[in-house]
């Protein structure tokens, strides 16, 4: 073998005696075969086989297996983002003439996908009250193929009655998918409550470090898994093994991170009640949170994301108060090691229900900083609102 040939052929290195605690990162576009017969019959390798790098490497399969086990499912599909997770489900089960139901709390790009992509192609959508429970059955007709759930809504913290929604959908032949990003499978397992799809934005808590974009769809039906894979294959969707490796690493610390941010967020939520400028705190540990009893019934705990509804008259002071924060950072997304805060206005997005509070919503994501530094930041911010609210003191 000449040198120019040697430099493009990998040397044979023994793996005997090598064992590591980390998952290897396998990067590949081309998958090679032992012989022509194996190549000609590659389509028979099934969902767990390897045919082309776009459809997964052992690194991808490791992440899929992790999530499948945590969700108590049968198979998982990894996609480039949480939004892709929702849209792949929609594209797999919906055809022209069909209908999907989405909650008023749905991630705004999901609603945008329904309006701007599905609707022009003859697929209708209906927005429903997230707290409707079994009443969703009244909205399901023969054209309804999917009911989408997001529990809780990531800004308004409205928890949905998934078992009741599943029962109503089953009675009329519709499938149910659940965006479970807030809880992760450690706090809630949608498949065990009857959902057909458990979708997560791995970008958030699974990634955990604000440095990757991934999503996942876990199912209990192997035939549905094949349909999902067919959709991703036809569209040409694949994911980077490097990002899958980061997500695998994130899963290994997910338990301790989620426990910490959950405890801190619950503590802060209770302490914020009654502070200057606060109209209402939206956290499931509080009985005033919409769906509090459903959270107590179905969830194993709370994560680190919650919201605070402000009184309307603190609005003029809000920008300056946010800009003065030292430990919190203003930014979208959540679930990373840095604590984030962002003002939200959800009133224009409500269609099925009316959001009655006029003040802004502050969405708070607790990270891994010292809670004392975080609380000092919040105390100073809410204290700045005192002069704007007659009768309140810092």
Overview of the structural elements:
The structure is a single chain. By secondary structure, this protein is of the alpha/beta class. It has two domains: 19-249, Aspartate Aminotransferase, domain 2 (3-Layer(aba) Sandwich), CATH 3.40.640.10; 254-388, Aspartate Aminotransferase, domain 1 (Alpha-Beta Complex). The protein has helices spanning 3-6, 36-40, 58-71, 82-93, 108-118, 162-171, 184-187, 222-235, 241-272, 292-298, 315-323, 371-383, and strands spanning 75-79, 99-103, 124-128, 144-150, 175-179, 197-201, 215-219, 278-282, 305-310, 329-330, 340-344, 361-365. The strands form two sheets. It has a seven-stranded mixed beta sheet with strand order 1-7-6-5-4-2-3, sandwiched between helices. A five-stranded mixed beta sheet has the order 8-9-12-11-10, with helices on one face. It is globular. The protein starts with a helix and ends in an 11-residue tail after the last helix. The mean pLDDT is 94.
Estimate nothing, just give the exact number of structural domains: 2
Question: What's the tally of helices?
Answer: 12
> Order of helices and strands, N to C?
HHHEHEHEEHEHEEHHEHEHEEEH
CATH architecture of the largest domain: 3-Layer(aba) Sandwich
- In angstroms, what separates the terminal alpha carbons? 80 Å
For the largest beta sheet, what order do the strands appear in spatially?
1-7-6-5-4-2-3
* Amount of beta strand: 15-25%
Q: State the fourth-level CATH superfamily of the largest domain.
A: Type I PLP-dependent aspartate aminotransferase-like (Major domain)
Average pLDDT value? 94
Fraction of residues in H or I helices: 25-40%
In CATH terms, what is the fold-level topology of the largest domain? Answer: Aspartate Aminotransferase, domain 2
Briefly note the structural class of the backbone: alpha/beta
Uncertain segments are: none
Radius of gyration from the alpha-carbon trace, in angstroms: 23 Å
What is the class of the largest domain in the CATH system? Alpha Beta
The biggest sheet, with number of strands, parallel, antiparallel or mixed sense and barrel status, is: 7 strands, mixed
